[in-house]
Amino acid sequence: MDDVWRTSAVGLVLARPPRLLGTEPFFMEFIAGIEERLAEHGRSVLLHVVTHHAAEIEAYRRWARQRLVDAVVLVNPSVDDTRPAVLRDLRLPVVVAGEPTPDTPAVRRDDVGSMRAALAHLVDLGHRRIARVTGPGALLHTRTRTAAMRSAAAVAEVDVVVVEGDYSEEAGAMLTTRLMDDPEPPTAIIYDNDLMAVAGLRAATESGRQVPRDVSLIAWDDSSLCRLASPALTTMSLDVHTFGGLVGESVLRLVGGAAVPERWCDTETVVARGTTAAPRPPHRSA
């Protein structure tokens, strides 16, 4: 492969069920942020959606073989991730959106600081048994958030329960129902995305709970889904468009041959709405 590429495209492969992509606002806003920055320099995003990592790697091989992209944006780095090594072998420059891999420029989110803020909001309200519905457990940011939650909970002397989901509406509903059916249900739940949180809100209400009187809920990543829910969901808010813009800027520097510094998004902030409040006082028999 020649050192000089002859394309204006930047590749992004999303390995997830297409039905999720259509219902998750996060990636649409993220891609819009990348596109806006790239468009200033006559570049665009080549998006490909696949269902698993093997298909993702095959897409990279095809892009390299056909010289379709100048660089790749890699999302959702995971434990024992083989993709960075494949991209190096293909000589495809890469920017990671998330936790970095060795010798790979990255734009990072402050998952530790953000999780501490989410937990502190609930602890300050008086919650002492807090659950979290996560994304896939193999993702690095899932593990980072879980470790941060357990560490902060130990300091605050509160109990935490962690259950693994997959970002889908079905997982949010099923796992919320399971948590509510526990003999000692949590008084608050943190969800790793907006879709699971909206489904969890519905499941909690259908189980006869009043939100936030009986259980408080926090969604990760603010979106119109959260704002339009009833009651509106408390969220961990990140400017996702700006996140995409930072990734786009790193890509431009990379393909331009400049040094690419590690960039960080701002720590997510708690936007308190109608789904968080002090826990209901325990019932005392006469």
Question: What topology emerges from the helices and strands here?
Answer:
Blueprint: E1 9-15, H1 18-21, H2 25-39, E2 44-50, H3 53-66, E3 71-75, H4 83-89, E4 94-97, E5 106-108, H5 111-125, E6 129-134, H6 140-156, E7 159-164, H7 169-180, E8 188-191, H8 194-206, E9 216-220, H9 224-228, E10 234-237, H10 240-255, E11 263-264, E12 269-271
Parallel strand pairs: 1-2, 1-3, 3-4, 4-5, 5-11, 6-7, 6-8, 8-9, 9-10
Antiparallel strand pairs: 10-12
Q: What can you tell me about this protein's structure?
A:
The chain has helices at residues 18-21, 25-39, 53-66, 83-89, 111-125, 140-156, 169-180, 194-206, 224-228, 240-255; strands at 9-15, 44-50, 71-75, 94-97, 106-108, 129-134, 159-164, 188-191, 216-220, 234-237, 263-264, 269-271. Helix content is 41%, strand content 20%. The strands form 2 sheets. A 6-stranded parallel beta sheet has the order 2-1-3-4-5-11, sandwiched between helices. A 6-stranded mixed beta sheet has the order 7-6-8-9-10-12, sandwiched between helices. The model has no long low-confidence stretch (mean pLDDT 92). Helix 2 packs across helix 10, helix 5 (111-125) runs parallel beside helix 6 (140-156) and helix 7 (169-180) packs across helix 8. The longest helix is centred in the middle third of the chain and has 17 residues, at 140-156. The chain is of the alpha/beta class. It has 2 domains: 9-109 and 239-255, Response regulator (Rossmann fold), CATH 3.40.50.2300; 111-237, Rossmann fold, CATH 3.40.50.2300. Strand 3, helix 4 (83-89) and strand 4 (94-97) form a beta-alpha-beta unit. It starts with 8 loop residues before the first strand and ends in a 15-residue tail after the last strand.
